[in-house]
Structure formats: C-alpha cells, structure tokens
Design goal:
The protein is of the alpha+beta class. It is built from three helices and four strands. It is 43% helix and 16% strand.
Length: 108
Amino acid sequence: MLSVVAQVLSDSVRAEDLIARYGGEEFVIVVPDNLKGAVDVAERTRVNVLNSCSPHEKNKLRRQVTVSLGVATFTDKSSTLDELIEAADRQMYQAKNKGKNCVSADGF
C-alpha cells in the first residue's frame, strides 16, 4: 500500500518540488512556493490519492486510502526547519480533526 501511495505522491508534485518519506506512513513535500502554491500542490495531491488509491485489481489495495495534509511556510514563528516541520505537523493534525482527507494550512 505504501508504495502505491508513494507513486501517486511522486506523480502529483512538480519537477521543482521535493518529496521524501519522513517516517512510518508520513511524507514531506517541500514546495518552493508561497502558501497558496503549496496549498494547491497539497490539494492536487489529496485528490490524486483519493482517485488513484482505491481497491482494484491493478494495485491490490484492500481499502480506500486518503491523506490528511498539513501545510506550513517559513514565518517569523517558524524560521528553522524543526519549527517548520512542527507547524506542518500541527496542521496535519488539524486536517485529521476536521475529518481526514483534507488539507489544512494556517491562514488559509
């Protein structure tokens, strides 16, 4: 299942974006863009996972896969990489609390 999701994530980002497995079932997508651009990439990724990660004979998934995405940008409050990851993590949990399968971003 993880390899199917990873392929969809890879297919969803642009050439200038960076995607990496962060741990377990978490991935990080680094987008060199403003908040709106990052949210656009996250939303496109969410839709692609929803549409491509459902059970069928090609991918052998047993259940529908969805993603909860948290988006954060460098600000005065998050000016280091650790702070940026913490901010994105908080937004991811906001997305999960909203019912999953959505994108959450501070100020968006």
